[in-house]
Amino acid sequence: MFDVVVLGTPDTRHSLTSIQNLLIDTPSGGHVRLQDVADLRIVPAPTVIHRDSVARRIDVTANLRGRGVAAVAADVQRAFVIGAAIGIFLLLQAVFRSWRLALVVFLTLPMAVSGGVLAAYANGGGILSLGSLIGFFAVFGIAVRNNITLVSRYRRLEQEGEEFGTELVQRGARERAAPILASASATALAFLPLALSGNIAGLEIVHPMAIVVLGGLITTTLFSLVVAPATYLLFGADYEPELELQPTTVSDEIVTEAAPAGS
């Protein structure tokens, strides 16, 4: 089954009854009314078709009964946050290959974005705007990236023969300090003009976002250079080893059967 669009004459399409009484030719040469072979009804149709790339999209709305919009929105956000948190924790475990280290880093990540929380509170009086929410996601992503790069460097040093301990953690932190500081400085320079411009027309979203990002960069950088190395020193000794697939050599065996005599 598929949709068919037919454009009739103005005299035909002025009412539903006239369309139902349209005569359709039959294979035997007779005629039958359209309403006898099809179900005709008037249904709502969009006047404007929105597309993302080449795919059609439509906004779905719903009415609420017995509950407020704020309560329902809070439930939806809570379910989304729980799902995202589980996904982030599983990704950390897959990268760190340690349940303990992934759990500790996951629980301490809110410390990394605490500067963004304080900045949002100081700028908006505790009101969380859309721009502030976007800023929190950005700062959280920076914190996760810094932790992953640090732990990856520690693992690389161990694979190169460095013994686990204080010297390994200090060496890895020194080697990753310059990239982390450079990334934080470049991000701060990009958002600083937006933060200093004030909450003017046209910057209603990017201004609070810039405030949150700048505040979060301070605590995120300190967390990555101080708390993350200490966390790895305490909980990063035991982790799941990487799977090493050993190549196997398969030899081909050629079997030659002698034909019976006389064949």
Describe this structure in words.
The chain has eight helices and four strands; from the N terminus they run H-E-E-H-E-E-H-H-H-H-H-H. It has helices at 16-20, 34-37, 69-96, 99-112, 114-124, 130-159, 166-196, 206-235, and strands at 23-25, 31-33, 50-52, 55-57. Residues 249-258 have low confidence and may be disordered.
3D shape = elongated
Class by alpha and beta content:
mainly alpha
Beginning-to-end CA distance, first to last residue: 65 Å
Main beta-sheet strand count, sense and barrel state: 2 strands, antiparallel
Give the strand line-up of the largest sheet: 1-2
Task: Outline the fold blueprint.
Blueprint: H1 16-20, E1 23-25, E2 31-33, H2 34-37, E3 50-52, E4 55-57, H3 69-96, H4 99-112, H5 114-124, H6 130-159, H7 166-196, H8 206-235
Antiparallel strand pairs: 1-2, 3-4
